[in-house]
Write a structure and sequence with these properties.
With about 240 residues, the protein is mainly alpha-helical. The protein folds into two domains: about 120 residues, Leucine-rich Repeat Variant, CATH 1.25.10.10; about 100 residues. Helix content is about 70%, strand content about 0%. The protein contains 13 helices and no strands. The longest helix has about 35 residues. The relative contact order is 0.07. The model has no long low-confidence stretch (mean pLDDT about 90). This is PP4R1 phosphatase. InterPro entries: ARM-like, ARM-type_fold, PP2A_Regulatory_Subunit_A. One of its GO terms (cellular component) is cytoplasm. Keywords: Repeat.
Length: about 240
């Protein structure tokens, strides 16, 4: 009753490979781009109408189609709610995490927006995978690592101080030694945000351990770049 059935059938047929050959080679991409709007119109109670189409698009051979979905998966998660997201979107999200950088960047740019919608136990599973974002197909793709640092600053609020110390701290230290200065600069802000997290949550022992690690790693570094990094961290703090 929401959308005329012929119109919905026409939309769902956009994933047919024959349509790409005869109508428009970009038709699957157009379908992927419109999907959150169609899902919003139909409502989560009618998600079953779109689920198969979404899964088909998520495994499309064209990376541009998968990239389009990766950039909007956080919006779809809001529309579907936590139960449907956990059941139907998380597996696809996990696939995008292992995809090409062109697809992974879509997930990365809205990583915080997606993770905050998950239950705490499901969210915690991603602590082990966040460090995989440090590695890219092309090491010269420094904006990827910059985006990671920016997202981590937001993501800190989603985890407790012990998890931040055990997992996110290592990523921050790695990014602070990046070859690209822009990545190092945003990473200094991340380090300070981690310290603020510790002290705001009465985890001063973790904060002190982290400060001592920064002193050893950067203040007493044999290279001037390391000592400069320590000075900049102090300046940001």
């Amino acid at each position: 009753d929401i959308i005329p059935q012929p119109l919905l059938d026409q939309y769902l047929s956009m994933t047919d490979p024959a349509r790409a050959q005869t109508v428009d080679t970009e038709i699957a991409k157009h379908c992927a781009y419109s999907l959150p709007g169609v899902a919003l119109t139909l409502g989560r109670q009618n998600w079953h109408c779109l689920k198969d189409t979404y899964e088909t698009l998520a495994s499309d051979v064209q990376w541009k189609v998968r990239r389009t979905l990766a950039f909007s998966i956080h919006e779809l998660a809001v529309i579907l709610g936590d139960q449907l997201t956990a059941a139907d979107l998380v597996p696809i999200f996990n696939g995008f995490l292992k995809d090409l950088d062109e697809v992974r960047i879509g997930v990365l740019k809205h990583l915080y927006d997606f993770l905050k919608l998950l239950h705490a136990d499901k969210r915690r599973e991603y602590l082990y995978q966040l460090q995989e974002f440090v590695v890219t197909d092309n090491s010269r793709n420094w904006r990827f690592r910059y985006e990671l640092a920016e997202q981590l600053i937001l993501i800190l609020e989603l985890y407790n101080p012990n998890d931040v110390y055990d997992y996110l701290r290592h990523i921050a230290l790695t990014l602070c030694s990046d070859k690209v200065s822009e990545v190092r600069w945003i990473s200094f802000k991340l380090v300070v945000a981690i310290l603020q997290k510790f002290y705001a949550n009465n985890a001063s022992a973790l904060g002190l351990n982290f400060i001592n690690e920064l002193v050893v790693r950067f203040r007493h570094c044999s290279k001037w770049v390391g000592r400069q990094a320590f000075a900049f961290i102090c300046q940001v703090g």
